[in-house]
Every structure is written in structure tokens, then in C-alpha cells.
Amino acid sequence: MATFVDRVTLHLRAGNGGHGCVSVRREKFKPLAGPDGGNGGDGGDIVLVAAAIETTLLGYHRRPHRSSDNGGPGMGDNRSGFTGTDLELPVPIGTVVRDADGTELADLTEPGMRIVVAPGGQGGLGNAALATTKRKAPGFALLGTEGWEGDIVLELKTVADVALVGYPSAGKSSLIAAISAAKPKIADYPFTTLHPNLGVVESGESRFTVADVPGLIEGASEGKGLGLEFLRHVERCSALLHVLDCATLEPGRDPISDLEIILTELAAYPVPEGQTPLLERPQLVALNKVDVPEGRDLAELVRPELEARGYRVFEISAVSREGLRPLTFALAELVEADRTAKAAEAVTRERIVLRPRAVNTEDFRIVVEGGSDGNLYRILGAKPERWVQQTDFRNDEAVGYLADRLAKLGIEDKLFTAGAVAGATVVIGPGDGVVFDWEPTLTSAAELMTAPRGTDPRLDALNRPSTSQRRQSYYERMDAKTAARAELEAERIAERDASRWNDEEGDD
Asked: Which EC numbers does the record give (predicted)?
């Protein structure tokens, strides 16, 4: 049964907003005293909170579906609906939050950090809030919008100062148990450690955390053994401690070959952009199990070669605790040096400037999609999509209110610019959305013109004819009338002559 989970997918559904209320106040001698429908309450948000007491994502692995409360509907007598309760989900420190596409949303590296991953829906306005001087008694209210629904991925990256890496059964779990109060599982078979273990070490005045990562073997980057799955817990470490087994009984193994294989596998692990590669971080070597006579002899044999490669080497025994004190002091020096460097970097770090949204930013955009039945005009934007969700299409007055809001937003002008004509298919929102046949709003005395609201082609100065053009047009009309009269006169003369000839033939 799983006891440690460091990656999980959550299926979230935030609370929906409550609907607004349609109500009319009734008093004695005043049966219709005005609208008094209250607003609906907002839906509850889903919030992730970094908590020090959490160490695993196991609870979310067992219960991945989470939802927050819906907002209450509005009521008469100007009573607003209740607001849905926010759902706070505690996660371990070091949790990286990503969306379903893999985009990083937040990195919760400090206790108390919060992020709203699923905002709740907005409550609808009641008819009392919609009343104006021109609309004194609205017969409709706005509906509540739906809360966010989707998946997010939580990935735990242990926040530790030092990481212990090495082959399975090299004594990493025994070492972390010897230098800290951690109590990992210890046994004499490979892959005893199946998940990272954390321990707090105090060395002099310094205090730091150590992470025990499951053992690596040759080919881990190709998926052998436990693979590189758990090396994400090494990403945040300041230093690496290579724990080498000097008393292994496996043929063909020695501390030098083990170190080279581990270095190869660490080099194959890609760290996130902006972080120092694993092999470029400070590294120490601990030759473990020197309490065994053969192990001490092998440690003395390989120590000069390791020091020639530039490593600080410590001969230790996790069982007899030999050499642990100098090792912890050396690790403390590396940790303190890294903390000092990070503190100086934090002082010189540029300030983050949050700028408000520009006032001239468009609230929507129109995408023209071609099809066999003609062009389809899709309207995408937070405002029109939210307004459509708030509209009760069974109420004609509510639909008219939506049309007014869309017109004030300038959608009709944009549709004309995009080439839409009366009867064109318009969709609001992605996917299926809300589909309707567009009928442009026409002003009075312009029943035969299809121009954007506020414009009139008859008043367009660029198309206004000049005096000479009007004179020429007048002459052309007069000439046409003269030619038409002459043609009509010729037809009359021809008919009169024809009737005269017919009369003379009849007399004969």
C-alpha cells in the first residue's frame, strides 16, 4: 500500500454562483412598491496552502476529486444569498502547481503561501440591483455563473539543503538516521528506501535538512530500478553528498565505478531552466562502512584518487558513528555559504512591478471561421462569455438586456468590420457556445440601410458629390427626360398614322 506520493492529479470543481432573485415589494395600499430581489452569493474558491505539517500528497492520491460550496440564491426583501465557503487544501512545502497542459502556476516554497487554483462563480444580480431610472421594475434577474472546473497537477519537490545520493544499500538511510532524528526503514536488501526521507541536522550553530533519495543504478535514466523519478527531490538542494559503499559484496563494484555511474545518471537528469545543473553544485564524498576491516582498507586505497579529482573525502561509519562529526561540519559550511550567496542575491534582486490592466485593452475578439454554410463569427472574451452565462434565455426582457450590453461593448461594429451581414451565424464562447443568427440593430429612418450603429452613409463626407457633379447629374437627368418624351411622342405619331391607314382601307 502506498505511503508516499509526490505527484498527483486533482479534479477540481469550484462552487457556482447563486442566481439573482426577481421579486416585487408588496405593502399595504402599495401592491407594487418596486423591485426588491436580492443578489446571489458568490461560489467558494479552492485554495492551495503550503503547510509545514504536510509531508506527502497521499491524501489527494486517495481522494483526487474536490469541490467547494455553491453560493446561495438571492431572496426577496433585498436579501442577498450566502457566499460559498472556500475550500483550503494544505499541501507540503515545495509543491509545484501545474495546469493540465503542464504550465507552471505556482511554486509553494514558503510556509503559508497560497494560490487560488479554482475560482468560484460570480453571483447574479437581483432585479433590485438592475433597476434604473429608465427600467424601474425589471422583470428579470441575472443568473449565477459556473465555478471553474478542471484538472491541476501537484508535484512535490522536497525542500532540503543536502541530498544523499548513491547506490542502493550504500548506507544512506543508516547515515541519515545517525546524524538526525529521522527513522527511515533500514534493511539489508536493495531498494529498501522507496521514497525520500527528510532529517534535520544540527552541527554547531548551523541547522540544515538532509534528504535521503532512493538508490540509483546504472541505466536509471533509461528507467531501470526506480529510474530518475525521485531525483526531482534533489533539484532544490544546495549540495550533494555521495555515499559510497566500501564493503559491497557484489562482484565488479567498487567506490570509483559506483561514483562514475552515479555522476553519469545525475548528468542525464534535466533540471528546470534557471537552476544550476546537479553536477555543478558543491559535492562531498563519504566512504561508508569503514567499521568493516575490508571496507577501511578499500577506503584508504581509493581516497587519494578521489582527492585527486577534487573531492573532499570523509571516511565514515553510520553504525559506529565514526567520522560523522567532521562530515556534518563540512556540510554545514557548504549550506551556510549557499545561504549567504542567496541572501546577497535576494538583496540585489529586481523589484516586481504589478501594472494595472490597460484601459484601451479590448474586452473581446472576433474570429472568423469558414465553413460549408458560410462564415461563422465567433466572439471570444471574458465579458461576453460571462454575460451569456448570466442570461436567462427563457425571459425575453433578459435577452433584450443582453443585446443592449453587447451593443454597448461595440460588438456590432466589430462584426460589421469583420464582414458580417444580417442573418450571419454568430457564436459567443469557445466550442459549441451560444449560437444565434445576427440581426443588426437599426436606427429609425434607416430601415433599408445596414450600417454600424452611430453611422449613416448618407452623412459620409467622403461620398458627398460636389457642385459640378450635381450639375452634371442634373443635366443627365434632363437629357434623359427629353429623350424619353421624344421617344413617347414618336410612338404616339406612329400609332396615329397606323390608325389612319386602317380607317382609309375600311372606307374603300
From this structure: 3.6.5.-
| CATH number assigned to the domain with residue range 365-462, chosen from the 4 options 3.30.300.350, 3.50.50.60, 2.30.110.10, 1.10.8.590 | 3.30.300.350
CB under 8 Å to 315, separation ≥6 — which residues? 287, 290, 296, 299, 300, 303, 322, 323
Hey, where are the domains in the chain?
A: 1-156, 162-348, 365-462, 465-508
Contacts for 212 with CB less than 8 Å, ≥ 6 apart = 164, 172, 173, 175, 176, 182, 184, 193, 196, 197, 198, 199
Q: What is the spatial distance between Cα 387 and Cα 142, in angstroms, rounded to a whole number?
A: 9
Of 332, 170, 174, the C-alpha closest to 238 is: 332
Q: Which three cell numbers stand for residue 306?
A: 578521489
Hey, is 11 helix, strand or coil?
Answer: strand
Cell output for 417: 468590420
Three cell numbers at 245? 559503499
Name every residue whose Cβ is closer than 8 Å to that of residue 506 and which is 6 or more positions away in sequence.
none
- Residue list for the binding site for Mg(2+): 173, 193
CATH of domain 1-156: 2.70.210.12
Range list of β-strands (E), 157-238: 162-165, 197-203, 206-212
Burial class for 360, CB neighbours closer than 10 Å (0-12, 13-18, 19+): exposed
In Å, what is the CA distance from 423 to each residue of 356, 375, 429, 494? Answer: 39, 11, 19, 52
| Residue labelled with grid coordinates 548513491 | 166
Locate cell 544512506: which residue? 172
Give the contacts of 153 (CB within 8 A, at least 6 positions apart): 7, 8, 9, 10, 97, 98, 99, 100, 102
Give the whole-angstrom CA distance, residue 336 versus residue 207: 9
Amino acid symbol at 497: D
Residue whose C-alpha cell reads 535521503 in the numeric block:
212
Overall pTM > 0.85: no
Using one digit for the tens of pLDDT, what is the confidence trace for 183-230?
A: 655 544 444 444 567 777 888 788 888 887 775 655 544 445 444 556
CB atoms within 10 A of CB 225: 19
**Cβ-contact 372, 379 below 8 angstroms:** no
In angstroms, how far is the first alpha carbon of the chain from the final one? 129
With beta carbons less than 8 A apart as the criterion, state whether 18 and 9 touch. no
Q: Would you list which residues are annotated within the binding site?
A: 166-173, 191-195, 212-215, 288-291, 317-319
Specify the fold of 162-348.
Rossmann fold (3.40.50)
Digit-coded pLDDT (tens) for 239-288: 888 888 888 777 777 888 888 888 887 787 777 776 778 788 888 998 88
Binding-site entries for GTP: 166-173, 191-195, 212-215, 288-291, 317-319
Q: What cell was used for 392?
A: 436567462
Judging by DSSP bridges, how do beta strands 95-99 and 149-156 pair with one another?
antiparallel
- Do the two domains 1-156 and 365-462 of this chain adopt the same fold? no
Q: 304, exposed or middle or buried, with CB in 10 Å at 0-12, 13-18, 19+? A: exposed
**Cα dihedral across residues 407, 409, 413, 419: positive or negative:** negative
